[in-house]
Specification:
Elements (H helix, E strand, L loop, with lengths): L2 H15 L7 H10 L6 H13 L5 E4 L4 E4 L7 H23 L21 H10 L1 E7 L9 E13 L2 E8 L4 E6 L3 E10 L7 H4 L14 E7 L1 H9 L7 E5 L4 E7 L3 H9 L4 E5 L1 H16 L4
Antiparallel strand pairs: 1-2, 3-4, 3-7, 4-5, 5-6, 8-10, 8-11, 9-10
Helix pairs in contact: 1-4
Length: 301
């Protein structure tokens, strides 16, 4: 069976178990059968073991409910792995579609031109991150000269955000955490020197923020009121993983977020215009109000 088939099978197993119905082994086999996969119970158990040991997805059996469940507390980077499976499944679908006919490509529209620029650095950066190797890169920031600058980096994490990839690490010259877009990198050289483990879990730092900019702001409860229409969009495309609906009527939807408000959150709120109202905290409401007033002043000739 092909690698793509195995990845698709992994996705289906997680999908079925994640519905929290505690499916038995026979339930899982039947579900896979309905999706076109004829496998034995032994193969299915092997898949579950591989998901656990190879990818850190802790699938456990509940003897009281006679079924399987995902222990999200013990699972390592579950959201990242699910996104990884999603990317692989999308790639398989597109590959199969184009194999059917090259004419199909004219019916596909992608987000933007050049968004894969720098993707060739993903593999060496991932290897350097995993092996804790220092890298020397030439980086052309938006305010940099045409030549760019030479940076020695301890790469800690590769992060995808809005269809682009970024490397996050400690800049050796300054000793602080910074984020670099792969599309602005001109050259990468993986060195022979090792760097020490970071003092903090870098991935966990970004769990409390939206996007790429970690902030020292305190973890804050943010209450937002939306129009009913915008509320439906926000429920379908959450702003942050902590999002939950606290009130919903015919005239409004109120959601709660628990995060560290940063640049990306503010930009998101500004982009929503009159369809959102900040109820809490007061300081964020005041800050957004000032930014909207400043924008309005641009048109007060």
């Amino acid at each position: 069976m092909s690698y793509h088939s195995k990845i698709r099978r992994y996705s289906l197993i997680i999908e079925k178990i994640d519905r929290r119905h505690f499916p038995s082994l026979e339930n899982l086999k039947s579900f896979l059968h309905n999706q076109g996969f004829e496998i034995s119970g032994r193969t299915l158990q092997r898949d579950i073991e591989q998901l656990r040991y190879d990818f850190g997805v802790e699938i456990e059996y509940d003897s009281f409910k006679n079924g399987y469940f995902i222990n999200e507390v013990k699972s390592l980077n579950l959201d990242s792995f699910l996104r990884f499976l999603s990317i692989l499944n999308e790639a398989e679908l597109l590959t199969e579609t184009l194999e059917e006919s090259k004419d199909h490509i004219k019916y596909l529209s992608f987000h933007a031109k050049g968004q894969l620029k720098g993707i060739e650095f993903l593999k060496p950066l991932l290897r350097a991150t995993k092996n804790r190797r220092k890298i020397l890169m030439t980086y052309k920031g938006f305010q940099e000269s045409q030549k760019g600058s030479e940076i020695t980096l301890h790469p800690y994490l590769l992060k995808e955000y809005e269809y682009r990839w970024y490397v996050i690490g400690n800049v050796e010259k300054y000793g602080d955490l910074r984020t670099f877009g792969l599309d602005r990198i001109a050259e990468v050289k993986v060195g022979d020197e090792f760097f020490p483990e970071p003092e903090n879990d870098v991935q966990s730092l970004f769990e409390s923020v939206v996007g790429l900019n970690f902030t020292a702001n305190e973890l804050t409860e943010v209450l937002l009121e939306f129009t009913p229409l915008q509320g439906r969009y926000i429920k379908a495309l959450p702003i942050h993983s902590s999002q939950k609906v606290v009130k919903e009527t015919q005239s409004k939807t109120v959601i709660q977020l628990n995060l560290r408000p940063n640049f990306e959150v503010k930009q998101k709120l500004l982009s929503l215009g009159e369809s959102v109202k900040i109820l809490k905290p007061d300081w964020l409401q005041s800050e957004i109000k000032e930014m909207l007033q400043s924008a309005l002043n641009n048109y007060s000739d």
